[in-house]
Amino acid sequence: MSKAAKATNTESATEVDELSAHDEIEGVREIGDAELKAIAEAMIFVADEPVSAKTIADVIKVERNAIEKVLGDLVAEYDARNSGLQLREIAAGWQIATRPEHHEQIRAYLKSRPSAKLSLASLETLAVIAYKQPVTVPEILEIRGVQSPSAIKTLLDKRLIVAKGRKETVGRPMMYGTSKDFLIQFGLKDLSELPSIEDFQDLAGGSES
Questions:
Q1: Residues in Cβ contact with 6 at an 8 Å cutoff, skipping those fewer than 6 apart
Q2: Which residue, 125, 132, 131, 115, is CA-closest to 167?
Q3: Could you tell me if 37 and 99 lie in one domain?
Q4: More confident residue, 155 or 195
Q5: HSE of 114 in the Cβ direction (CA atoms, 13 Å)?
Q6: Are residues 85 and 163 in the same domain?
Q7: DSSP 8-class letter at 198
Q8: Between β-strands 135-136 and 93-98, what pairing exists: parallel, antiparallel or unpaired?
């Protein structure tokens, strides 16, 4: 092959490589902090459950620390304008929620709407599980003094508790603990934010009539 032919082939290969590279990055562009913040806020708003910074970063295809920065900016913005909403870190993710100082009015509004509430028995059982987990049915019985099978079923159906394996003791009874849905329902970042037991009934919206 002549030197001229080799040169032509090399140039052609280079052009193909450049085209391939162009195809790979087509549609990719720099996203500024303002737009990144707006996208992150919109994703959190439409999500059915708390969204992690990693999830947002993976979807947008940016570095996680860039998302964490704009989330911090969003938190500050919500606080600065005294909004009725706040951006909170809940259950290992981020969620837009109402502010605690407005909970009385929000709760009054929600009580005016028909809703499925926990019975007192279910509420007491949930409190025992939340503070003693992982805990077995016999242990719940010992604390409450009454049987809790229907309450356990209700809490499982509502996905507020989950099975945590069997206890290595006589009969190997099933152990139960709270779920991620429990954290979301009560607006908790993790179990360290558990309220006092006395607040459980108020948080859950009261018992069934």
A1: none
A2: 132
A3: yes
A4: 155
A5: 0
A6: no
A7: G
A8: unpaired
Cα 193 to the center of its chain, rounded Å: 15
Q: Alpha-carbon torsion 187, 189, 195, 197, what sign?
A: positive
Q: Where residue 70 sits, what CATH number does that domain have?
A: 1.10.10.10
Determine contact, residues 126/162, Cβ cutoff 8 Å: no
22-75 residue pLDDT tens: 443 344 457 888 999 999 999 999 998 999 999 999 999 999 999 999 999 999
Residue at token pair 């280079």: 14
Residue partners of 135: CB distance under 8 A and separation at least 6:
128, 129, 175, 176, 177
Give the DSSP letter string of 13-75.
Answer: HHHHHHHHHHHHHTT-----HHHHHHHHHHHHHH-SS-B-HHHHHHHHTS-HHHHHHHHHHHH
Please give the structure tokens belonging to residue 123.
Answer: 């509420």
| Domain stop point among 44, 72, 103 | 103
Q: Describe the crossing of helices 64-80 and 53-60 by its angle, rounded to 10 degrees.
A: 120
Phi, psi of 83 (to 5 degrees): -65, 155
